[in-house]
Structures are given as C-alpha cells and as structure tokens.
Amino acid sequence: MKKKNMMALAVAAALGLGVLPPAADAVSTRDIEQKRGEIDALRSKRSEVQEKISEAQKNIEALQSQQKQVANDIEKLNIAIEETSGKIRNVSADIDQTEQAIDQLKQEIAEIQERIEKRNEILKERLRSLQESGGAISYLEVLLGAQSFSDFIDRMSAVTTIMEADQQIIREQEADKTLKEKKEAELTEKRNKLQADLQELKQLQAELAGQLEQKNRLMADLKQKEEEEHDHKMALEEEKELIAKQEAAVKEQLAELERQKRAEEEAKQRGRTYASPNGGGASSGETPSGGSTPPVSSGAFTRPANGPITSGFGYRFGGTDFHPGVDIGKRAPVVPVVAAADGIVFRSYYSSSYGNVIFISHVMNGQTYTTVYAHLEARLVGEGQHVRKGQIIGYMGNTGNSTGPHLHFELHRGGWNEAKTNAVNPLDYIPF
User: Fold this and answer.
1) Ranges of H-type helices in 270-300
2) Residues spanned by CATH 2.70.70.10 within the chain?
3) What pLDDT does 21 receive?
4) Whose CA is closest to 125, among 176, 168, 166?
5) What CATH number is given for 48-234 in this structure?
6) Where does the chain cross the membrane (predicted)?
7) 390: closest CA among 331, 326, 327, 343?
8) Residue 237 and residue 51: Cα distance in Å, rounded?
C-alpha cells in the first residue's frame, strides 16, 4: 500500500497536476468534506436539470399534440371554405339566371303594358262615346228606338254584346295588371333572397378565412414555441453533461486530496514533512508561429491570452445584456490561449453558442474555480487532461455565436452553471 501511495505521489509530481492546495497548507478533513459537499451539490443539480429536461420533453409533446389538433381544425376550415366557395358559385349562377329571367320578364311586362295601354285607349274611346251620348242612358235610347220587336231583340243583343266586351276588356286589364305585379313581386323576392343568401355566404366565407388565419398564426406560434422548447431542452442537456463532467473532475480532485491526506499521515509517521507537487506551473515554452504566449504572472491566475480587452464583465448594451466574462481581441494571425491556472479539463467540445470551448476546474486553498475559454479556432487539450498554469490549450478564433475573432474568457468562483451565478470579474483576479 505504501509503495502504491509513493508511486502516486511520484506520478503527480512528474505531471505537475496542480489540482491540490499549495504545499504550505496541509489537507484537512474540512477540505475533503467540502469537496464531498461539492459532489453532492453537483449530483443534486444534475438531478434538478434532469427534471427540467423531462418537463421540457412534456412541454414539447403537449405542443405537438396542440399542433395536431390545430392541423385538424385547419383541415376542417379549408373544407368548409371550399364548400362555401362552391355554394357562392351556385348562388351566383342562380342570380345570373334570375337576372336573365328578370330581363325576360321585362319584355313580357312591356308586352302586357302595351296591351294595357291599348285597352286603355279602347276604354277611353268607350268613355268618350258614353259621355257624348249621355252615358249609360244611351243604351236605353238604343233599345227604345227599336222599330219593331224583332228590331228591339236585335238591339238588345247588340247592347249586351257591347257591354260584355267592355267588361271582358276590364277583366283582361285587371288580370294583366295582377299578372304583372305578381311576376314583378316573385322575381324581386327571389332576387332579393339570392342576394341575401350570397351576402350571407360571403360573410361566412370571410369569417372562415379569419378563423383560418387565426389557426395558421396559432400553428406558427406553436411551432415557434416547440422550437424554443427544443433549444431549451438541448441547453439543459448540455448543462447536464457539463455538470456530469464537473462532478467527475471534482471526484478526481477528491481522490487526489484523499491520496495526499494519506501521504501526509504516512510522512508524519515516518517523522518527515510532506511536500506537494509544485503548483506554480510553467509555460510550455512553446511559442507558436505568428503569436506569443503571455508571460506567466505570479499569483493564483495568469492572463489567458495576449490582446486588448474589447468587452468587459457585467451589463452592457444599455443594461439589457449581462456579459459573464471578458473578451480579448485578436491582434495577430495566430494567438495562443493558455490555461489561467493549474487544473483539470472537464469539458472540451464544440458548443453552438461557445463554439470550440474548454472548461477547466481548479482548486485553490479548498476553493473550486472554473475557467471557460470560448470561440477557439482549435482545442489542444481533451477531457480529463491535467494542465499547468501557462500551458497552451488552444488558439484564439471566431467559432460559435461570435461577432469577430476573439477569446471569451469566464472565471467562476465555484462550478459553472447555465445561469452563470458563480461568474466573477476576471479583472479582480488576474493582472491583465
């Protein structure tokens, strides 16, 4: 057992892990318990995020169900609009036929009117004749002027015929007037009804079109919400994976603390003082073509890249956007990015927002810190890899959601989370 512990110490010293407290401070039980507490907190956080992922999935399924119902409603509305359009065409055709019938009726009415006017002339002549002969008495005079009984019979028959003819004219006159008025009323009523039906159908068509427009807007809104929910779920899944990686890194740090604690106890038993690996770290000594690494400064953290600060920490754009880190502008064709402190890379991947990004976990005097290096052109370290302060880990780039070549650098006092609640101003910790 002692041989294995000594071997572990030798490997740690050779690699310069830099995940332990400085040598002057012995590992305490409190440090170990604190680290275990961090693991429990990360595990709890991961569980919370998983619940949010499940809730997001339920929301997605609910939105998809609503979209299916709206799609059915849209289909029904389209069918109703098609049917209404067909009815409008039929009613319009009926109106055209009615208009043609009205034109025909106008001709018939003109003929009836002509007959009426002719009869009016006959009746007027008859009235003038009656007036000139003294009215109805003239019929009596005609009868009394008979020369014989036979003549009286002939005259009476003639008078009766004339009177019947006059009455027939009047009857025909009244019948034509009644027919004219009836046809006019029937066609007018039919046309008015068809016009009313047409107006009602057009109003129904407009209402259906309005409902269809509302349903289409609702469908677009539901699709937008589903897309946002998918993005939210993806962000949560990414956060969950990051938390899992952080948890793994902290577990490794805990294991290292426990190994160091055991080594200290063994060293005390042997009567000598334990010395931890040098945490100061040194630059890799490599200077890539086209750019140089920043000098490694004293203190806990060093500057991650050369270049001017183009955007600071805090709210910007009129207080509407919180910037959880600092941006360092790219002022050379190739600009190397270095680890700000000794630590463990717990996430190295391509993010839709961060682009090529590296997350490093650091432990200093029992306190966990997390640094983030985003929008890299290239990543030179992988997950689980131990890095030293000043070691080149990648190159400045313009990947992900970036408006220009730069390094977005974040420093968190504690673990990283999507809300960036642990983010602190790097300028308060690093001499830029």
Assistant:
1) none
2) 297-428
3) 39
4) 166
5) 1.10.287
6) none
7) 343
8) 11
User: Hey, what are 286's tokens?
Assistant: 């490599």
Residue listed under structure tokens 């019979």 = 153
The segment with the largest mean pLDDT, out of 62-76, 149-163, 283-297, is 62-76
Average pLDDT over residues 48-62: 90
Under a CB-based contact definition with an 8 Å cutoff, are residues 9 and 270 in contact? no
Residues 6+ away with beta carbon under 8 Å from 398 = 330, 355, 375, 377, 404, 405, 406
Confidence at residue 377, expressed as pLDDT on a 0 to 100 scale: 92
- Contact, 36 vs 258, CB < 8 A? no
Helix and strand tally (H, E) in the chain? Answer: 4, 12
Length of the chain: 432
CATH topology (fold) of 297-428? Glucose Permease (Domain IIA) (2.70.70)
- Which ranges in the chain are annotated with CATH 1.10.287? 48-234
User: d(Cα 432, Cα 417) in Å, to the nearest integer?
Assistant: 25
C-alpha 322 chain-centroid distance: 24
pTM listed for this prediction: 0.50
Query: Which is nearest to 411 in space by CA: 312, 291, 317?
Result: 312
Q: Are 326 and 312 in contact (CB under 8 A)?
A: yes
Give the mean pLDDT of 306-320.
Answer: 88
Token look-up 């989370």 returns 417
How far is the C-alpha of 78 from the C-alpha of 409, rounded, in Å?
Answer: 54
What whole-number percentage of the chain has pLDDT above 70? Answer: 78
Using CA atoms, how far apart are residues 232 and 222, in angstroms rounded to an integer? Answer: 15
